[in-house]
Design brief:
Blueprint: E1 4-8, H1 12-24, E2 29-33, H2 46-50, H3 65-72, E3 75-77, E4 81-86, E5 91-96, E6 99-104, E7 107-110, E8 114-116, E9 129-130, H4 138-147, E10 150-154, H5 158-169, E11 173-178, H6 190-202, E12 205-209, E13 213-217, E14 224-227, E15 231-233, E16 236-239, E17 243-245, H7 248-252, E18 276-278, E19 285-286, E20 293-294, H8 299-315, E21 328-332, E22 335-341, H9 344-349, E23 354-362, E24 373-381, E25 387-394, H10 398-411, H11 416-420, H12 436-444
Parallel strand pairs: 1-2, 1-7, 2-3, 7-18, 9-16, 10-11, 10-16, 11-12
Antiparallel strand pairs: 4-5, 5-6, 8-17, 13-14, 14-15, 19-20, 21-22, 22-25, 23-24, 24-25
Helix pairs in contact: 1-8
Length: 449
């Protein structure tokens, strides 16, 4: 009898899981359930649609439901909201229009993703306070932005920074509020974040750092934002304070949550309930550096978690997920901002003895025209000499290559010596003869090289 696999959620993890299950088991009955109209969608692209870089919101989905169903032979159910899971009878209940539909499963993959955090503060339910989650909502968000003149962005994480740039591209007055002393507070060290502050200010973003938002004002629609320091008039507010795992359905299925309040999974993406897997932003993961449990809501690991869950749903314990480093990159006006591994502060909190080196380098040979620059920070552990974190900020897209090389090395446990002797490429248009990562490792060696 054909194995029945049901996947709830058709974002990065869910679509990847369904496709992998189908590829490994051509006879399986694979059903992909999505409460919205789009599948294989890219929420990360929403700020770029709002700012006008992406012209068609439909481009934020890789496949149409019809293409995915036809090409992958998967039963795709869009506009179908999963409302309950019966783990004993192996049933998923969905609401589709006016009907409640039941789907049987031998293996269930929960990939419900994450949802925006809305702080429980006065006025947070007013109209004009907006969050980003699903791409089909992007046209409405752009229309809201276009109608405004003064916009507040609450939160200085990746989404907040991308929104600030998008809104400035629309000619809006933008105020960015971050309760911590610097932007990207959990992923960058303060000295590196200052480079981002300068770029934001240079491009007209009003920074309010270390300023907690405590409420919003307005009768029906938001008209003001209240902080610990004062009150500011606004027409719209975009919330970007982060996301939390959408575990409502997982709890109905009876699965255990981990210490981060995301769904607990093992290396096979198995939950605490036999036959139920979880993948993507709904699931907890762990650090490749020391195995410590953590929560990372990023598309690349979500895709890979989906691959592992989909494979194991039809093949048993076929693939293992190794964990994450939290590698990420974004663009902030004219800077590319990238990181991987641990910040120095985080490393210290986790019990390492971290020390760091920061260097500024050119991304081409010094004589080559139109070269960019980058600031590189490497962090290593005193006891082992292992490099445990990297941060790169620069004007050149080559920043992406730098952080990817660093992530590959750190993921394999590379030491300062390994970084210094890494056989990295050289050509005057693409790198100086001493690659920036090797220069950083040389400084980090404290005179050894």
């Amino acid at each position: 009898m054909a194995r029945k696999v049901v996947v709830i959620g058709a974002g990065a993890a869910g679509a990847s899981a369904a496709a992998r299950a189908r590829r490994l088991d051509p006879e399986a009955e694979v059903t992909l359930i999505e409460k919205g109209p789009l599948i294989s969608h890219a929420p990360c692209g929403i700020p770029y649609y709002i700012g006008g870089v992406v012209k068609d919101a439909g481009e934020l989905a890789i496949y149409s439901p019809e293409e995915f169903a036809r090409e992958r032979r998967i039963n795709v159910r869009v506009n179908a909201e999963a409302i309950d899971v019966d783990s004993t009878r192996h049933l998923v209940l969905t609401r589709e229009g006016n009907d409640v539909v039941k789907y049987e499963w031998d293996a269930l993959i929960i990939a419900t993703g994450a949802k925006p955090i809305i702080p429980p503060i006065e006025g947070s339910d007013l109209k004009g306070i907006l969050t980003l989650r699903l791409p089909h909502e992007a046209p409405r968000l752009r229309e809201e932005a276009l109608r405004a003149s003064r916009v507040a962005v609450v939160g200085g994480g990746y989404i907040g920074l991308e929104l600030a740039e998008a809104l400035r591209a629309l000619g809006k007055r933008v105020m960015l509020f971050e309760m911590m002393p610097h932007v990207l507070p959990t992923t960058f060290d303060e000295d590196m974040a200052k480079l981002i502050h300068e770029e934001l200010t240079r491009n007209g973003v009003e920074l309010h750092l270390g300023e907690r938002v405590v409420g919003f004002k307005g009768d029906d629609e938001v008209k003001g934002i209240l902080t610990e320091r004062g009150e500011y008039e606004v027409d719209r507010v975009f919330m970007g304070v982060g996301v939390k795992p959408d575990v409502d359905l997982a709890l109905k299925a009876g699965v255990k949550l981990g210490e981060t309040k995301a769904v607990y999974v093992n290396e096979y993406m198995e939950t605490s309930v036999p036959g139920i897997y979880a993948a993507g932003d709904v699931a907890e993961t762990w650090s490749m550096i020391n195995g410590r449990r953590m929560y990372v809501a990023l598309a690349p690991p979500a895709n890979k978690m989906g691959q592992v869950a989909g494979a194991n749903a039809v093949k048993g314990r076929f693939l293992k997920f190794p964990g994450v480093l939290g590698t990420a990159i974004t663009k902030v006006f004219n800077l590319y901002v990238a990181r991987t591994g641990l910040t120095e502060r985080q490393a210290r909190e986790w019990g390492f003895k971290p020390y760091s080196a920061t260097v500024k380098v050119k991304t081409t040979a010094h004589y080559y025209p139109e070269g960019g620059s980058a600031t590189i920070r490497l962090t290593a552990d005193e006891d082992t000499g292992r490099v445990i974190g990297a941060q790169v900020i620069g004007t050149d897209r080559l920043v992406a290559g730098y952080i990817d090389a660093a992530a590959a090395l750190i993921g394999k446990g590379a030491t300062v010596d390994d970084f210094f002797f890494a056989d990295l490429s050289y050509s005057p248009p693409t790198a100086p003869v001493w690659h920036g990562l090797i220069v950083a490792a040389r400084v980090l060696s404290r005179g050894k090289y």
